[in-house]
Design a protein that fits this description.
By secondary structure, this protein is mainly beta. It has one domain: Fumarylacetoacetate hydrolase, domain 2, CATH 3.90.850.10. The strands form 3 sheets. A 7-stranded mixed β-sheet has the order 2-1-11-5-6-8-3, covered by helices on one side. Strand 13 and strand 14 form a beta hairpin. The chain is globular.
């Protein structure tokens, strides 16, 4: 199982971090050791003092696919969930300044929260899904899938040009604006259409 992540897929998030809008989807990876199951506490790593939450819709791939045809892409997933791409922002800023890869800041152990998954059939359209994140019961992020620069089907087709997708692979689809720092004692709760998908305590 691999975790494929998309960066800079919401215009408002690009603006809040003063990044350039990309011409193509920005892809990075997390290893399976980054996976943090729903309910397990997140421990802030010793190497950073500025970890940010980034809530994202997550797609679970349901079958093997390479160079997926756009006409058939919808058959390659049947579940959609929610997760957090934890980011060591101080480390990422240092790496970006030097033009280096982000993995130390994005792919460390426990950096990928994944909550429950819902059947794709629950949604009238996968391009119209409301999701949000609460920090200590206050909403800090909220968006709709329609705001993605590249929608779910487009992302799967694009990613499959470079990486063979297998059953069980996870695709993090990018975060909207509102990212921020976590501190020990915080509680993060993620929602799709007002249904709780995960709850994570910060240690």
């Amino acid at each position: 199982m691999k975790i494929v992540c998309i960066g800079r897929n919401y215009a408002d998030h690009i603006s809040e971090l003063a990044n350039q809008r990309p011409a193509d989807p920005v892809i990075f990876m997390k290893p399976d050791t980054a996976l943090l199951p729903d309910g397990q506490a997140f421990v802030i790593p010793e190497f950073t003092d500025n970890v940010h939450y980034e809530v994202e819709l997550v797609v679970k791939i349901s079958k093997y696919g390479k160079h997926i045809n756009p006409e058939f892409v919808s058959s390659y997933y049947d579940e959609i969930g929610l997760g957090i791409d934890f980011t060591a922002r101080d480390e990422q800023d240092k790496l970006k300044e030097k033009g280096l890869p982000w993995e130390k800041a994005k792919a460390f152990d426990g950096s990928a929260v994944v909550g429950k998954f819902l059947p794709k059939s629950n949604f009238a359209s996968v391009d119209d899904i409301n999701f949000s994140l609460n920090k200590n019961k206050l909403q800090v992020q909220s968006a709709n899938a329609s705001l993605m620069l590249w929608k779910i089907d487009e992302l799967i087709v694009y990613v499959s040009k470079f990486f063979t997708l297998r059953k069980g692979d996870l695709l993090f689809t990018g975060t909207p604006a509102g990212v921020g720092k976590v501190n020990s004692g915080d509680v993060l709760e993620g929602f799709i259409e007002n249904k709780t998908l995960f709850k994570t305590r910060i240690l």
